[in-house]
Every structure is written in C-alpha cells, then in structure tokens.
Input
Amino acid sequence: MHSRVVKTVESDLPNIGIVGGLGRMGRWFTEFFERAGFSVMVSDIETEFTPRDLAAECRVVILSLPMEVFPDVVADIGPSIPEGSLLTDLCSLKQAQVRCMLEHSSCEVVGTHPLFGPAEDDMSGRRVALCPGRGKRWLSWWEGLLQRYGALTTVITPEDHDRTMAWVQALNHFILLTLGKSLEDDGIDLKHIKELATPSFHMQMEIVSRLYYQDPELYATIQMSNPYTCRTLDMFNQHSESLKDIIKRRDRVAFIRLFKEVQELGRMLTMQEQ
Output
C-alpha cells in the first residue's frame, strides 16, 4: 500500500458517464465532475440514457451501483466499452469487482473506493483507494485529477484492499452493532450514559447514533461479501475471549503484559502519523 503525488493530468476533459448517477454517491460525483467542467451523462432507472448509451458515448464510465446488481450490469455493458476508455466503480469492496470488470471488458480498468460518504462538501482531505486492474494511462489521469482537487489517494491491490476493509469496515461495524445491541439489551438509562461518558466513550456513542442514518442493506453487504470478514472476526473473538479470561482470573500480570503489547502497536501507529 502506498500514497504518492501524481502531477500529470490530461489537458482535455473526457466526457464522463455515471451508471447509477441518481443514487447518493452517483449524484455526489456528478456534481464533482460538473463543477470541474466535465460533460456528464447519467444513467439510472427511468433516465433518458441507458448504461449501454454511456458505454458507447463516454470515455470514462463510472459504476455507482449496489454490489448485488454490479455483475449483471458489467456483463451487459463491459464488452461495448472501447479499449481506449476507462471503466471504474465506486463499490466498497474491490477483489470481485475488479475481476468482474476485467473479465467482461477490454478497456482500461481501475477500482475506486471513496472512503467518505455523500455528506461531504468536497474532495479536499478525503481518502480514496485506487486498485489497478488494466492499463496505466487512465490510472495516472484519475489519480492526478483526484489529487488536484485535494484527495488523499492510495494505490493498493484489490486483495490487500479487501483484507484491510475487513478491519476498517467489517470489524468496525461489528463492534458498533455489538455495542449498540448490548446497551439496548442491558436496559441501562441512556441519559446516564451520556451524562457520565468519558470523551472517548462519547465519541463511540456519537458513531453508534449515526447508524440511524445509514443503509442496513449496504452494511449487510459489506459484512457478508468481504471474503476476509470471518477470518478477521474469528481473530477478534479469539483475543476477546482471551482478555475476558484474564479479567475473570484477575491475572494482573497477564493483563499488563497484553496492555504493553498494545501500547507498542500504539507507538508504531503514532510513528506512522509523524
């Protein structure tokens, strides 16, 4: 995994096609490209243009689709996209998606994962993962464009991306759901929780509360479609049970040893931020 600065961006503005352009992220990227001066065609349910229209007319085709319908759409339009064009996507997972785009097209392919939601005002300071599939020319153009508007890009293989997302998304969501369900079943007064929360726990409660605005279908897909989710959850549960056993036995020596091991991880994380 690495981040880099790319300065070379094409001088011309290729026309952009966004399949699923009326969804929340589709609308966000439509507005992003239009503000940047690009001509944008949008295809969605009951729009004037179809996905095949975009495949034929646009040099850059972006798929902003639910992962459940993604393979069928790619199989339908992929063969129609010219070799000199770019096909990319906005899915939260990349291994199966990049493989699917490569299988059904001959154009250049890049997997794109915006690590932010449609509530953001602009690209500045937002992280975007890019997974090379086929070709380098459009990858360089796409990364350069994103960086020009302030994005922090990371180029990573589809496999390493999904393995990382098992921690960043799947396990993170798992912890939040478990925490929320445990609070609900305990029946503790939430007013007391808010009044007595430490700063770190208050942040956790804020994140749990934001689940109210999220799409449960998307969260289910992220949990169940990532091939690395169960491996990650098994490892987490193993260490959770081990720590619980240490606490039940009141084994202070073992607890402090484990704590210092995690402190060392904290030190390494701090060094990476410097």
